[in-house]
Design goal:
The protein is an alpha+beta fold and 333 residues long. Helix content is 49%, strand content 9%. It contains 14 helices and six strands. It has a four-stranded antiparallel beta sheet. Helix 3 packs antiparallel against helix 4 (42-58). It is elongated, with a radius of gyration of 37 Å. The termini are far apart.
Length: 333
């Protein structure tokens, strides 16, 4: 095998697509370790590993402890760039003893005090999220897709999705997990960081409601999607308003208190709805009863309301008239 063919076989693209789509634990580990071996880009390697931990928190698959052996070697004895040394706190569970973790701190920082000062805020944020980051396989009740929107480095909003996810945490934890992507510089488009801050999240089954949307609090002009209960409350409110307006119409016309159709529904809605409705004639129930025969009308009545004697007389009369017509025809023949 020539050197050129050997390099072609080893060189495989690795980036955002592989981080969020490869499904097998072993395949993802091998591809990530191959990326480090071929490129020697340690900072990108560590950031990709953090991103896979975030995916693991939302995934029913077991994607925990990806490339564990290689990450342990880097943080214990390897050369870790200063730009990503703070990310070591995401991998604390990769080290089995307190002695190992102390070795990591001493390897990356001058002393324990420097580590505590530089990572205090991040450690407080990550601690409640740690079980999700290494959750392993998780049961899924039904198929879900995650849809979210992020601000890029220029403040422009763009959408992002992740298929086959679970929803096991609170909106607050979901937001915190996705905001970890804001610490990573490896995901870029046209030289700009793509994930700086998460804006909203949907677990898209029917997309009726959002898990969270920060614009509800930060932007008073934003109108978020209404959930199904909110829509039903608005409908009930409109019905209640319509009933009240109908009651006021009854009071205005005391001559026919039982006829609520004298004020068309269209006019009542215009009083409460700022959107003007088209002036279409409102069909009354009686308009739809044209061309009904008396016999059919009688047959459609309930048994309690029907007068059997009257029906019998009507049928007898109709038969008699038919008999007379038949006799006249026979005489003519």
């Amino acid at each position: 095998m020539t050197e050129k063919s050997h390099m072609t076989k080893l060189a495989q693209p690795f980036g955002k697509r592989q981080v969020f789509t490869l499904k097998k634990h072993d395949t993802l580990t091998k591809r990530l370790e191959s990326f480090l071996f071929e490129t020697n880009k340690t900072a990108e390697f560590i950031q990709y590993a953090v991103a896979i931990m975030i995916r693991n928190a939302f995934s029913p698959l077991n994607l925990s402890f990806i490339a564990k052996k290689q990450i342990r070697e880097l943080f214990l004895t390897g050369k870790v760039p200063a730009s990503v040394r703070h990310l070591c706190i995401y991998f604390q569970d990769y080290f089995e003893t307190e002695e190992e973790w102390t070795t990591v701190i001493n390897h990356l920082y001058k002393n324990q005090q420097e580590f505590d000062q530089l990572t205090e805020e991040a450690r407080l944020l990550i601690e409640p999220l740690r079980p999700a980051l290494i959750s392993g396989e998780q049961a899924v009740d039904r198929k879900r897709n995650l849809k979210a929107s992020f601000l890029d480095e220029t403040g422009k909003m763009h959408n992002w999705s992740l298929s086959n996810v679970v929803c096991l945490h609170s909106p607050k934890k979901h937001m915190a997990l996705l905001n970890i992507l804001g610490e990573l510089t490896v995901f870029q488009k046209d030289g700009l960081r793509q994930f700086t801050k998460v804006v909203w999240l949907d677990f898209a089954i029917d997309e009726r409601s959002r898990d969270f949307d920060i614009r509800n609090d930060e932007d008073f002009q934003h109108k978020s999607k209404k959930t199904a209960p909110e829509k039903s409350e608005n409908i009930l409110s409109n019905i209640d308003t319509l009933v009240k307006s109908t009651g006021s119409n009854k009071k205005r016309n005391e001559s026919s208190p039982n006829d609520i159709r004298q004020y068309p529904v269209e006019e009542q809605a215009q009083e409460n709805d700022p959107i003007k409705l088209k002036n279409k004639p409102v069909k009354q129930p009686m308009d739809r009863m044209k061309k009904l025969k008396n016999d059919n009308f009688l047959n459609n009545q309930s048994k309690n309301d029907r007068n059997l004697e009257v029906e019998k007389a009507v049928r007898k009369a109709s038969k008699g008239s038919k008999g007379k017509k038949n006799r006249k025809r026979n005489k003519r023949k």
